[in-house]
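Progress against Task 2.4 (sequence-to-structure conversion) is shown through the following example record, which the project officer requested during the mid-term review.
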Amino acid sequence: MALASLLALLTIAGYAVLCAVKPFTPCRKCSGTGVRTRRRTVTLCRRCHGHRARLRIGRRLLNNSRTIHAHGTRPHATGRKATPWQ
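Structure tokens generated for the chain above:
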């Protein structure tokens, strides 16, 4: 049981390091080309919008948690604490 827990923690830590070092991954839909061919037309990929890369899920979660933390702890110009509905 302890070995399985250690393996899970190492896997999560490795993915967190990967998200910090290399936050973008090639788009899976267009294979990192940025364009998709349908019949005779070539269009921009709808998922990556032609940028050829997408933000990793772990990095997206990290960015959202940082934003939530920043909104909850930083004082506003009015001196009041921010509320979620503002």
